[in-house]
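Suppose a colleague, Dr. K., hands you the sequence of a protein chain of 175 amino acids and asks what its three-dimensional shape might be. Before reaching for any lab equipment, you can write down a predicted structure in token form. Begin with the sequence itself:
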Amino acid sequence: MKTTINAILRFCMIPAVLTAMIAAAAIAQPVQIPLSNGTQRPKPTRDITATGDFRIVGATQTFGVNYGGTITLKTSDLNFVASTKKYSMNMVYTMTNNGNAGTGLFNNRLADNGVGISGVTGQSLNAGQTKAVTHSKVQLSEGTHVITLMLDDANSCAETDEGNNTFKVTVVIVP
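The predicted structure, expressed as tokens, is then:
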């Protein structure tokens, strides 16, 4: 008895795998053949944002304030700079890259009521990395100051969400 075998070869593209269905004598058996051109990778994403609270390091202690909040500091808690008649402090925040790819280099800036007061250059974050950043010796006078933190202020890094790079806190310095 002579058996006729009809072979049907059908190829279907599935990410990074070529699946061949071979039908012989009406019995189908799947065979997976890995492709030599590598695996399919997700599209790179980057998303720089601030996490935690905004911290002010004065002469006597560290103060924290939530973004959008207000903090009142006494002049006695800060360092007075006689030449400028202002009070010096360090401003610290934590930034995170919520994406799956590194950011490349970018700059961050602080502004007081819209006027730049401090910047840090050459920042970068790996995928998923979190880093603390310090702006040293920032000077403010007595009174009310709306401090704006701008991450990647020149939009050097293409991000999935450009709308989460700006944060504000109000700092009030009283005698």
